[in-house]
Design a protein that fits this description.
12 helices; two-stranded antiparallel ribbon; 3-methyladenine DNA glycosylase; Endonuclease III, domain 1; globular; single chain
Length: 209
């Protein structure tokens, strides 16, 4: 990974270097990462997958995402909340996903907490976006050294603590920061990446829930 956090692909496009020049990773970088999201199912999916990613690489999870979606009913949290022991055992033996019993049980628990959250706030999106960092919490230009050195922010710490109080699991501040980056609550495409201005425009046009 370059010191600047940027790399130029075979197509001549400058991107954040974490996508490693891999076709599927670059597509995720270009078409998903950092775009603002307010769909509850996608938000729930992402926070669960970030929990599965803990201790691993996101690329590993990304390449198993369709298998995860099949195993967890498309991350429909109303359905996942009904999972019982048979479903846990089914997931534990599913070679297509990460077979970590604790993270599987966590996903079911978090689905139940998601229902409670929706009942309280009207949507998961309304809750999560209320933790969007304020302008004075973020530098005007977010450089790679900052990103690498500080994968935890005051906003991700606040959100992590509140989720834990509500009974969510596998939601530490580093995991939550990755979730916020991916779901567009911050724009952490490196200055010089072709996506950064596009994401900034999307964030300006985005209607907060």
């Amino acid at each position: 990974m370059s010191e600047t956090g940027l790399s130029t692909g075979d197509d001549g496009v400058i991107r954040c270097s974490w996508q490693q020049g891999l076709t599927d990773y670059a597509l995720y970088h270009d078409e998903e990462w950092g775009r603002p999201v307010k769909d509850d199912t996608r938000l729930f999916e992402k926070i669960c997958l970030e929990g599965f990613q803990s201790g691993l690489s996101w690329l590993t999870v990304l390449r198993k995402r369709e298998a995860f979606r099949a195993a967890f009913c498309g991350f429909d949290f109303d359905k996942v909340a009904q999972f019982g022991e048979a479903d846990i055992e089914r997931c534990v033996t599913d070679k297509g996903i990460i077979r970590h019993r604790g993270k599987i049980v966590s996903t079911i628990n978090n689905a139940r907490r998601a229902i409670e959250m929706r009942d309280e706030f009207g949507s998961l999106a309304r809750y999560f976006w209320s933790f969007e960092p304020k302008e004075n919490e973020r530098p005007l230009v977010f450089d790679y050294a900052t990103l690498r050195a500080n994968p935890i922010t005051p906003a991700s710490t606040r959100l992590s603590k509140d989720l834990k109080k509500r009974g969510w699991t596998f939601v530490g501040p580093t995991t939550i920061y990755a979730f916020m980056q991916a779901m567009g609550m911050v724009n952490d495409h490196i200055e010089g990446c072709h996506c950064r201005p596009r994401i900034e425009t999307r964030r300006l046009e985005f209607s907060r829930p």
